[in-house]
Amino acid sequence: MQPQKSVFKSSPPRHSILAALVVAGVVLISRLAFIGPGFGMDYDAWLLADAARSIAETGQYVGSRSPGYPVVEGLFALLHGMGPWALCSVTALASAVACVLTMRLMRRAGCSSASATSLCFAFTPVVWLSSVTAMDYIWAWCLVMASWDALTEDRPLRSGVYLGLAIGARAASGLMALPLLWLAVRRQKTRTFALACTTTASLLYLPVLWQEGFNWMVSFTPGGRGVMDTLRLGVVEVWGPIGLAALGVGAFVVGGQVRSRESRPRPLQRELMAVARIGALLNLALFLWMPLEAAYLLPFVACVLILMGALAPVRVMGPLAIALLVSGIYIPGGEGALPADLEQREEQELLLDLIEEALLVIKEPTVVLCGSMFSMVQYRMGDTEIGLVKLKMAMTDRDRLMKAKAEGGEQYLFINTIDPWHRANLGYSLWEVARPLLPEDWRQLKQGLE
Fold first, then answer.
1. Model confidence over 396-446: pLDDT tens digits?
2. Distance CA 39, CA 18 (A)
3. pLDDT reported for residue 14
4. Distance, CA of 80 to CA of 194 (rounded, Å)
5. CA separation, residue 444 to residues 36, 345, 347, 431 (Å)
6. pTM for this prediction
7. Which of 82, 342, 419, 429 is most buried, taking the most CB atoms under 10 A from its CB?
8. CA-to-CA distance for 389 and 367, rounded, in angstroms?
9. What are the sequence ranges of the domains in the chain?
10. Per-residue exposure over 371-382, b if at least 16 CB sit within 10 Å of its own CB, e if not
C-alpha cells in the first residue's frame, strides 16, 4: 500500500494552521510598526489614492497611470473614506497573506524551510517597504501566489481567476503567466487555466479601455539609468548591505550542497524550482529593460528565495531571515530603509502642511512647479488650480521662466525640497529660474505649526 501524499486540499493539519497564524502575525506586526502618515514616499501611491477618490466620488473609472491598475484602484476606492492609514494597513495585510501562501506552496512541495523562507521574503527590505505603502506591488504578488498555490492544488479555474486579478492589479504580473502556463500544461489543465485568466483580465481592463482609451494604456516610456545607479537600485536597495552579505553566504552553502549532491530535490520541488527559475529570469529582464523602481524586483526576490528555500535547510534560511530583518532597520553607519522611510514620511507630512498653508495665501497669478511632489500636492489640494495658483509638475522651457523672472507678471515658484528630481529631469536647477515657495529653513517652521 502506497503512503498518502502530503497534499492538503481541504483540511491541513493543526501545526500547519498554527504556523500560518504565527507567520501572518509576525509579518503583520512588523508592518504596523512602520506605517507612517500619508500614503508613502512613492508619488505613484498618491496617484492611486487620487484615482480612488475620483472613482468613489463619481462612480466612474479613472486611471491613476497607464496602463491602468483597476483591481487596486477599485479596492482603494471602496476603502478611501477610511483614510491613508487604512489603505496602508490593508496592503500590510496583503503582504502577510502572500507570506502564508508562500509557506503553503513550499510545504506542499515538501520543503523543510517553508516558514523560514516566507519570513525571508517578508523581511527583504524592498518587500517590507512596499508593504507599508499604499501601492500595487504587494497586491499583485499576493494574487500571483494565490494563483500558483491553487494550480498546485489542481484547481485551474481558481488559479486562472487569481492570475487574471493579479494582472488587473499590475499588468506586469502577466509575466508569471508563462511559468504558470507551463505548470498547467504539465498538469493537463491548460484550457481551463488560460481561459479563466484571459477572461478575468480582459473584463477588468474593459473599463480602462472604455474610459481612457488604448493610446493612454500604452503611453508609458521605458526609462534608463546608469550602470552604477541600476546596481544600487537593483541590489543594495532590494536586499540592504547586511541582507546581501547573508544572501551570498547562504547561496554559497546551498551551492556546496548541490555540488556534493547532499540536496536532491523531489519531483514536486523540481517543479516548484522550475516555475521560480522562469519567473525570476523574466522579472529580472523586465527590471533591466525598465530600471525605475527597486520594487519592480519584488517578484524576482520572491522567486529567488523560493528557489533557494527549495534546496536550503532551516539552518540556512532561518539566519538569512534574521539578517534581512536587521538589514531593513539598520545599515552600517546609519538607519535602515524602514526607519528612514518613517522619518521621511513624517517630514513629508510637515512639508505638505506648510505647502498647503502657503498656497492658500497667494493673491496673484502664480505657477507652482512641484517636481516629484506633484501628485502629493494635487491630492492634498484636491485639484491643480487653487484660486490664482496653478500646479504643474515641471516646465522644460527655461527661457520662458528666466524671462518671467526678469520682467515680472505671472510669478513662478517651486517647492524647494532636497529632491534632485528637478536637475536630473530638466537639465537645470529651478533655483536659477524661479523663487522657492518656502524659506530654506522650512523645517524650523514646525514649531510654529505646533
1. 777 777 777 777 666 888 887 655 556 666 677 777 777 888 887 777 766
2. 32
3. 60
4. 33
5. 21, 17, 11, 20
6. 0.91
7. 342
8. 6
9. 14-218+227-338, 362-449
10. bbbbbbbbbbbe
